[in-house]
């Protein structure tokens, strides 16, 4: 797929810039839009060395698009969970398993599954006017997209429970203080700061950065012994990369390293 209806895909050197592009619907994701995003992420992972995931318009994403006609509310046997199987769960796993670093750029609302997508960033840049919202309880659903996992492991069970049970906005300044986002900047600076961080990551030893990502995600569910064993395996693989040899050579030669991602 080379062109998208609801995703804006561009390249800035070694950085893939993927923007949600349905501002009229506050970038709420239909199945079709989600499939396009999944395709764009595959493309970015195969041809770029870092990814920025942001949006057009005044919202990052209002969550799932409940008006797109994907749900037949009159069907008593409807299975809302099937949309997780086909689009959203593969998307969250794809974001976790990207072979390159991911920076998310959050302006305005990051609600529902849009909140989960935003929180999947390795670096999360939020505008001062941004907010995170888990409003599933207001429509009789449970949080999805890994929201409970992401929130509880980042800001703790108690805060996560409050956000999910009461469905209240979590402003960007509070999210920053709680460690939920990486950078808090003026709204008009979000995209530029996110791109700057991604460019820096793209110049790094990206194959090894992918290993760091694997290690960090696995650590959330691992005991110390398992994590030590994993780090041993990853360190073996990292030590065999060209970038390790370049890094040591640059260190000894007292010059900046020129990493290739190999």
Oligomer: single chain
Mean pLDDT: 93
The beta-strand count equals 9
CATH class type of the largest domain:
Alpha Beta
Would you identify the CATH architecture of the largest domain? Alpha-Beta Complex
Describe this structure in words.
- The protein is built from ten helices and nine strands.
- It is globular and about 65 Å long.
- The two termini are 27 Å apart.
- The chain is α/β, with parallel strands linked by helices and 262 residues long.
- It has two domains: 7-202, 2-enoyl-CoA Hydratase, Chain A, domain 1 (Alpha-Beta Complex), CATH 3.90.226; 206-253.
- Helices cover 46% and strands 15% of the residues.
- The protein has helices spanning 31-47, 81-96, 113-119, 147-155, 157-166, 172-177, 190-202, 206-219, 224-239, 242-253, and strands at 7-12, 15-20, 50-55, 102-106, 109-111, 123-127, 131-133, 170-171, 183-185.
- Strands 1-2-3-4-6-9 form a six-stranded mixed beta sheet, with helices on both faces. Strands 5-7-8 form a three-stranded mixed beta sheet.
- Strand 1 (7-12) and strand 2 (15-20) form a beta hairpin.
């Amino acid at each position: 797929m080379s062109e998208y209806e609801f995703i804006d895909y561009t390249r800035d050197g070694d950085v893939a810039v993927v923007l949600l592009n349905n501002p009229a619907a506050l970038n709420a994701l239909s199945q079709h839009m989600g499939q396009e995003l999944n395709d764009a992420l595959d493309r970015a992972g195969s041809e770029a060395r870092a990814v920025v995931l942001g949006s057009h318009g005044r919202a990052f994403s209002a969550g799932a698009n409940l008006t797109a006609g994907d749900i037949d509310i009159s069907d008593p046997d409807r299975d809302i969970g099937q949309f997780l199987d086909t689009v959203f769960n593969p998307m969250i796993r794809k974001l976790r398993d990207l072979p390159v670093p991911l920076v998310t750029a959050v302006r305005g609302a990051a609600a529902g599954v849009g909140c989960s997508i935003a929180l999947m960033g390795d670096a999360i840049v939020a505008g001062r006017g941004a907010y995170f919202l888990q409003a599933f309880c207001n429509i009789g659903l449970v949080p999805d997209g890994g929201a409970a996992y992401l929130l509880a492991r980042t800001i703790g069970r108690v805060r996560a429970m409050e956000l999910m049970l009461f469905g209240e906005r979590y402003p960007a300044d509070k999210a920053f203080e709680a460690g939920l986002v990486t950078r808090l900047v003026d709204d008009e600076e979000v995209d530029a700061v996110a791109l700057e961080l991604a460019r820096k990551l793209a110049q790094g030893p990206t194959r090894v950065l992918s290993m760091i990502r694997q290690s960090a995600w696995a650590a959330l569910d691992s005991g110390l012994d398992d994590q030590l064993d994993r780090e041993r395996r990853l360190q073996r693989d990292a030590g065999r990369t060209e970038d390790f040899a370049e890094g040591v050579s640059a260190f000894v030669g007292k010059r900046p390293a020129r990493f290739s991602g190999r």
